[in-house]
Amino acid sequence: MDKPAYLLHRGDALAAYGSWPAPVVVISDGAYGVRGFHGDTTGVGGLLDWYRPHVEAWSRYATPATTLWFWNTEVGWATVHPLLVASGWDYIQVITWDKGVAHIAGNVNGKTIRRFPVVSEVCAFYQRRFEVRGVDGLMPVQQWLRHEWQRSGLCLNRANEACGVRNAATRKYLTRDWLWYWPPGEMIERLAAYANEHGAESGWPYYSLDGQAPVTAKDWDALRHNWRHTHGVTNVWQLAPLHGVERIKGTMKRAAPRVYNPSSLSSAHLNQKPLRFMHRILSAVTDPGDVVWEPFGGLASASVAAVESGRFPCVAEIDHDFAEIAAQRLDDARSGRDQEADEPA
Ligand SMILES: C[S@@+](CC[C@H](N)C(=O)[O-])C[C@H]1O[C@@H](n2cnc3c(N)ncnc32)[C@H](O)[C@@H]1O
To answer: Model pTM?
Structure first.
């Protein structure tokens, strides 16, 4: 049987996580504390309790290379940030979505407003904290790299000889300061080979993650998230809120049978995210075939982008009507992709 193009769980994401394959990326667009959808909290005060069980699940099923993209308001993100850090997610950066002045045009009363009008949302980018449990206990990766070299009894500058560099190994890979770099797989293999050949006798091989053998370049590189740079893209993303053909219109008829009526002119979901942003995230940190989790699907924008770009999305949506529209979008994306594949080159 052919592998499905996506998994859609029509219900609470908490019931789905355990059945999904491990995520390469989690794209979260859940509660904002602004009553944005049925089930959103009425203020940021409720956000920690709302997110806690989800963050626990993401942390349980993530791999060391999983990244998390957390969409929210500025204060919503600030509220949940300590929970993410305490759960082993390391902050990388925040992206600001600047929706432009058109977003508030005609909606601001200059006589009564007492702050600047808000035209932004944020998306905070996190990576899984990587700590190594070695012979001397659990350590952050930077500390472990230096610790292993010192455990071998070799002086630090011989690491440069091991890596075939003038001073980059001591300056970048074994340093204690903030100029530290994550060594590429090839370099960790060189450090390991040298330490194991020239270092003091030890019952635990140097640079081993399992106490049996030194880590290989391939295994080491798989511990780190992907990054594909696009020239000119910064952490401020300017785009007006969705309108035009991408904005899904329509409502579900409330009476049974509940069917989707696409001719209605109202927006199907107030929080629909631009596909362009979702493609940007996926292209930066994933490869075709990678598993994408979208726990709070809405109209499943991240998952539609994932299907379009050959990734494998696992999406949940608790609201029956939104899930129905999401399923249609996902099927359309799959047909579009199938057609593209059938077209002669
Ligand atoms: C902010 S919207 C997501 C919009 C989406 N990014 C899009 O582009 O359409 C959040 C969605 O999460 C859904 N939701 C809330 N709690 C959920 C849960 N526990 N499991 C699955 N879906 C949930 C809501 O029904 C809502 O549609």
So the answer is: 0.92
